[in-house]
Amino acid sequence: MRKSLVAAALMSASPVAFSAPLIDIYAGAYTWNAEISGDIATGSDKVDLERDLDFDKTRENVFYIGLEHPVPLVPNVRLRHMAISDDQRNTLTRGFSFGGGTFVAGNTVRSDFDLDMTDLTLYYSPLDNWLNLDLGLNVRRLDGEFTIASGAQRGHEKAEKTIPMLHVAAQADLPLTGFYVGAEVNAISYDGSKLQDSTLHVGWASDFLLGVELGYSRMDLELDDVSDLDSDITIGGPYLALALRF
């Protein structure tokens, strides 16, 4: 599938692409500001990220590099790293326990949220013309860390897991117009946990490689007792970007 390397508006990117005979190498980086909602828990108390900790928006940095080739039976490959982080202060309206710390109503707490995900995607492109389709396996290494502190009280928990996911991506190019529409999904559900990230986009590419792209990206992260952490988190929002297509 021809790749869109996007930048600007809600995202800023620095893509690079290289070509050799019959081999395409693509790379890029962007930052995305998105809304975050949901809850986390290490016991019976669910901590609401919005109402309890005042999280609203988060920063996501994404870097990726990939290689596509015509060798039969050998999959194309993409390596992608996503780093999500935020910190907030809030005065509690209720008490709760988290990660070994106990917090009471009226206290001011500082919360830190860091989530790193590294994806190795191996995929085939059974369709690669005006209609592009990618099918494959996405192996995700997830490293999450949550900290809540107030005075002498400190709650801390990590989540570490390597997770295989189904990878599906599709893009349709409207002939002779430069317009295209596309989507990508990575997903798995197992043992009470569910991970899914999806992107929908429409765009236009000129004959000079430049174009624009409008899309919506969403990530759902439901973890059931992964390294003693439970979570039900949604991160998502729209983006408007400049694009380079090769």
UniProtKB/TrEMBL annotation:
- Leader sequence residues: 1-19
- Keywords assigned: Signal
Q: Which residue ranges run through the membrane? A: none
State the name under which the record lists this protein. Answer: Outer membrane protein
